[in-house]
Amino acid sequence: MGARQRAWENLLWQAAAVGLALLVTAGVVALAGASPLQAFGLILKGAFGSGRKIADIFVIWVPLLLTAAGLLYTFHAGLWNIGVEGQIVLGAVFATWVLRMFQNQPDPSPALALTLAFIAAALGGMLWALLSGVLKVYGGVHEIFSGLGLDFVATTLVLYLVFGPWKRPGVGSMSGTVPFPRELWLPTLGRTRLSLWALALALVLWGVAMVLLYRSRLGLQLRAVGRNPKAAFLMAGIHPARVTLLAFALSGLYAGLAGAVQVTQVYHRLIPAISSGYGWLGLLVNMLVNFNPFWVGPVAWFFAMLNLGSIQLPIVLKVDSNLAGVLQGTLVYTFLVVAGWRRLRQRRQAAAGASEGA
Amino acid sequence: METLLAGLAGVVALSTPVVLATLGETLTERAGVINLSLNGMILLSAMASFAVAVHTNSLLLGFLTGALVGLLVALLVAVPSLHLGLSQVAVGFVLTLLTRDLSYFLGSPYMGKQGPRLSPWPLPGLQNIPILGPVFFRQDVMVYLSYLLIVGMWFWLYRTRAGLVLRSIGERPEAAYVRGAYVRRLQYIYTLVGGAIAGLAGPTYSLSVKAGWKGTISGLDGVGWIALALTIFGGWRPLRGAVGAYLFGLLQWLSLVLQPYLTDIPSQVLQVAPFPIMILLLLFVNIGNTEWMQRTLAGLPPDARRWVLRVLKALQVQPPAALGRSFERE
């Protein structure tokens, strides 16, 4: 089979997976009593209807890309960093903390304040991720459970801050803390909500992840530990504990920055739902592309488009906007199953070929 | 005294769905399969069974729907992981998110609706036993069913031949296969049955202890993860898992009861208490397995070591050796 033919075959299978996912989702929409075609049309219109909307796709893409790119480090080391959602939240909390110190100053320097906020956010995310790492390495607690527990704790921390020490004058509410003065917002492009600074940061760190994972010793160590920690130690002298902690730290750093972007570019304050579920979405993106560092980017963009496009759905169709989540989840499931089925077929063919040759 | 007993009866009732989910997952994982979809699946089964009960006005159909949802989601886990050899964790994780979104999407028309609710059925005779009666035997049918399941599953696992085979396919599937067990077929059966049992947790919430469907504020998000953690805490044993679930319910209840007295601690902190407790429980049962602990133990004086070892051994758990690994006949 030629390389070209194989590329076509790949494309065909992937198209089949997408088609299957669309079909299932259409069935779900019909079950909810709405028209699937109208729903899909509304998603496209909601995402591409105007120049501002297209810019809004990128507003969602930036934190999602940061989160998904960071997760590459842990996934390549064979780790399930489910705590990523909480790491975004901690990044947002730390960024808010720094900005709150500046907003009461008579003449705050925005550049300094924002830089410090991003650094603090990176540290906050890293700290929260390292908690999962330490619990795994020194406590034997699987990272899925520690991460999940810490997600809930992080959300509670925000609720506590928003209704407690950081509440608005008068009473605290779900609308979050007092918005920052305009000087402390991340400057945006023209009349859009997109910040080129944030976009550049995400693109650079995505590139760093690609280089580190495939062109450095670190990437090799991560993958060695991911495949077989014991062999990595015996054959290559790699310390699995150290590499594990490093992978968590890097992943948390990226997630923390995503939290800072949410605070400084999107909401300009701390709200209870500050992470927007991008942690979960980042995990799904990674699974769909089988942890490929390049494809994380385009798929994250596609998912961002779906998220934006489905915002209008509840108003027009009287259905819940979680439809984007249903479609994203179904897509990942069908991709996994189609890929698994193809591998099984190839194994069977190889086995049949081998027995014929014998 | 009356209020204390009523409170404890409430703990037993509220723990019942967690007990069911933990038992179902224990059965599944004993066969070597991880069903990580529990959290979203319970939401979906709670929503679907409530919807069916509202439409048909039949509690029985509601509960059957719950079990059916659990069974179908388990099938979606089993086929890719057993037949295609995909990562059980990956498949289960996608499904836990997917079913959660699905329950919120399909459940929105049923938000806040009135529906049928299971009424208590005090057991004649048993309900009059002092202390035990009011706490354990003035409950509804699902609570009694959970008692039967705890005992039944223990009996099945440790006192029957089939249970012996089940334990062996979770530990050494190759050996079980050589000795004539239909490993893959049994793994399918136990995954589906375990899923159906865990699926009953949904209607036990939405048709009994937390009747109704309230979407994202139903307060059920997280329960499945607790049950997965309790399966580990229970050391994959039904009795210890169930005791863990009741203990957990008790701790949650205590934190609610003590809230008025602990005015220094904000109420939000106590609401989230289950999750740090979950991490701590897992820490207790796993720390003995870590390398540094074994090294530290080796350096202790013999008397202290014997004492520490005894405590650790009592807590320590070991998963079924073949858990999460797909079995190939070759």
Write structural notes for this entry.
- The complex is a heterodimer of chains A (358) and B (330).
- By secondary structure, chain A is an all-alpha fold.
- Chain A has a single domain (24-323), classed as Orthogonal Bundle (ABC transporter involved in vitamin B12 uptake, BtuC).
- Chain A is 76% helix and 0% strand.
- Chain A has helices at residues 3-31, 36-48, 51-76, 84-103, 110-139, 143-163, 196-215, 217-227, 229-236, 240-267, 278-288, 296-309, 313-317, 323-357.
- Chain A starts with a helix and ends with a helix.
- The model of chain A has no long low-confidence stretch (mean pLDDT 90).
- By secondary structure, chain B is an all-alpha fold.
- Chain B has one domain (2-315): ABC transporter involved in vitamin B12 uptake, BtuC (Orthogonal Bundle).
- Helix content of chain B is 71%, strand content 0%.
- Chain B has helices spanning 2-30, 38-56, 59-83, 88-107, 132-136, 141-159, 161-171, 173-178, 183-199, 201-209, 223-233, 238-258, 267-271, 274-286, 291-299, 302-315.
- In chain B, α2 runs antiparallel to α3 (59-83) and α3 runs antiparallel to α9 (183-199).
- The longest helix of chain B is centred in the first third of the chain and has 29 residues, at 2-30.
- Chain B starts with a helix and ends in a 15-residue tail after the last helix.
The structural class of chain A is: mainly alpha
General shape of chain B: globular
Following the backbone from N to C, one meets helices and strands of chain A in this order, namely: HHHHHHHHHHHHHH
CATH architecture of chain A: Orthogonal Bundle
Fill in the CATH topology of chain A: ABC transporter involved in vitamin B12 uptake, BtuC
Low-confidence segments of chain A, ≥5 residues, pLDDT <50?
A: none
Distance between the termini of chain A: 22 Å
